[in-house]
Amino acid sequence: MMAIPAPVWTPVRIPKQAPAHEVVAELPGTRLWYWDTGGSGRPVILMHAATHSAAGWVYQQPVLAEAGYRAIAYSRRGYYRSDPGDPANPGVAADDLDNLIRHLKLGAVDLVAAAHGGFFALDFALAYPGKVRSLTIVSSLMGITDADYQAVNNRLRPEFFAGLPHEFKELSPSYRAGNPEGLAAWLELRQQAMPGPRIVPKVKHPLTWARLETIRQPTLLVTGESDLYTPPSLLRMQARHMPHAEVATIAEAGHSPYWEQPIVFNKMLLDFLARH
């Protein structure tokens, strides 16, 4: 009799969330929604991707809180529960984050930023270096404007790529095939993330290799091995300009490894934070 094969995928259920305050902060020029687990632990600020909001960190929130960190996530302008403001004046993301940190009376923070959030985390670290303890950049194109990087990205994603469904572009084939409940939850968060037109805040200065090379904070660069945006080869290209950074790839994960493989990602994150 043929043996029954092992499961091809073991879904991870969304855990019960730690107690957290949910507030809309009145900040200069905008009102941003955030949640905050509170306490006296080191503050870790989670910065969301373009397709999600502060509500998308459900796998990290209770894990960070249980480990003794003060976990905080906020929605950028126009995202879930945050005001869009004037689309013609989308603000500067680094300044919005600085105003939130001031509002919360925080010292130096650890930033964990996914995808598009990575653009703004890097820009913040460059604009306010004394306020960043460490950087974890997850599956991010980083917004680098140098011609060599643009050429590589043009080869990676042909014109038709932009029109493909978000779940196809951002979740690995293994995840979509093996975790239909997780896929449905990801899509629900994607649907609620942008109730109106997408607001894209500005960076303080163009992001370039030369600017990236000046960052000295402890840095962890992570991507999924199946990421169509930031495959391991592109991550290595980024890492050449951040030689002090730790670099890791996560198997059977695409552009959202913190969601697709949360056990692996969380262990990696907690280990990095503990060492820095």
Structure description:
Helix 2 (93-103) packs across helix 3. The radius of gyration is 18 Å and the shape is globular. The protein has a single domain, classed as Alpha/Beta hydrolase fold, catalytic domain (Rossmann fold). The model has no long low-confidence stretch (mean pLDDT 96). It is an alpha/beta fold and 276 residues long. Helices cover 34% and strands 17% of the residues. The chain has an 8-stranded mixed sheet, with helices on both faces.
Spatial order of the strands in the main sheet?
Answer: 1-2-4-3-5-6-7-8
> How much is the average pLDDT?
96
Question: Hey, roughly how much beta strand do the residues contain?
Answer: 15-25%
Class inferred from helices and paired strands: alpha/beta
CATH C-level: Alpha Beta
Number of helices: 11
Classified in CATH, the superfamily is Alpha/Beta hydrolase fold, catalytic domain
Number of domains: 1
CATH topology: Rossmann fold
